Amino acid sequence: MKPLTLAARPMLLALSFVCALCTTAQAQDPASPVEVFTEGNRQYEAGEYEAAVLAYSTLVQRGVVDADLYYNLGNAYYKLGMLGPAMLYYERASRLAPRDEDIAGNRNLLRSLLRDRQFLESPGLMKRAVSWVPHRLTTPELAGLSVVFYLLFIALAAAFVLRGRRRVSRWYATLSLASPGRLLGLEKTGDFILAMFVVFVLFATTAGTTAARYRMESQKQGAVVMEEEAAVYSGPSTDATLQFKIHAGTTVRVTEAHSDWVEIELPGELSGWIRTDAMERI
């Protein structure tokens, strides 16, 4: 088995992070965020993983949102054998940097170590192919792509209405050389209709995926089990029927909250209620 990539990363700070946080942090604490992060890396490389977790967690508590910070914190928790927090921060890092191979690799390898591997989704070939691009984009990137498809659809619709004009015909003669409709032998009208249909499907798919992901992230529907073992009941009470148990690091979807309980869903149409303090939302 390939070992986890557990070297601490230097911080690659976004300009907004530097401008928004450094001044506030220095006013409250003599150590700047970069200094705290560097100290966390030093402690990590020295094998002082608890001290590294403390340093990184200080930045999280200050409101720092950074993929490298989450990645390093996940690595430190893994070194301490705390699979729940490790998975939580790998998941958070993945949302910010979905194309990062180290983050994806560590998360996937950690999943292989979990006790509840049977709850991991195993999408088929078609679903993997359809979701490949969305899974490699952040939510803002996916939203931007849907806007591009929308504007392209509007442009194609306008060109379709004006397709009889000379200038549009000249553009069409050049741009349609790579058109699937032309390759299929369609005339101009059919080619435009096919192109608009394809672009509309792409727009609807990306817009729908963006809306679903935004809803999940804004409502914090994703969560990770933090306790070594958490009981799942048929209702929001320990007096309800015990259905099954789940373990640290398992990711779940929160569908409802009631007092100190949340209803969760798992692959395989499994659902039930666990105590809120047994998990943490991504």
Give the SSE layout.
Blueprint lengths: L14 H14 L4 H13 L3 H13 L5 H13 L3 H14 L4 H11 L13 H11 L3 H23 L4 H10 L4 H4 L4 H31 L3 E4 L3 E5 L8 E6 L3 E8 L2 E6 L3 E6 L3 E3 L1
Antiparallel strand pairs: 1-4, 1-7, 2-3, 4-5, 5-6
Helix pairs in contact: 2-3, 3-4, 4-5, 5-6, 8-11
Describe the structure in your own words.
β5 (261-266) and β6 form a beta hairpin. The protein is elongated, with a radius of gyration of 24 Å. It is an alpha+beta fold and 282 residues long. It is 56% helix and 13% strand. The protein has three domains: 15-113, Tetratricopeptide repeat domain (Serine Threonine Protein Phosphatase 5, Tetratricopeptide repeat), CATH 1.25.40.10; 139-218; 222-281, SH3 type barrels (Roll), CATH 2.30.30. The protein has eleven helices and seven strands.
Looking at this protein, list some descriptive labels.
282 residues; two-stranded antiparallel ribbon; Serine Threonine Protein Phosphatase 5, Tetratricopeptide repeat; alpha+beta; five-stranded antiparallel β-sheet; 56% helix; SH3 type barrels
At a glance:
This protein is α+β, with helices and mostly antiparallel strands. Helix content is 56%, strand content 13%.
Q: Count every helix, treating DSSP H or I runs of 4 or more residues as helices.
A: 11
**Overall mean confidence score, pLDDT:** 87
Structural domain count: 3
CATH architecture of the largest domain: Alpha Horseshoe
How much of the sequence is in beta strands? 5-15%
Record the strand order, biggest sheet.
6-5-4-1-7
What's the total count of β strands? 7
Instruction: Report the radius of gyration as a whole number of Å.
Output: 24 Å
Helix content: 55-70%
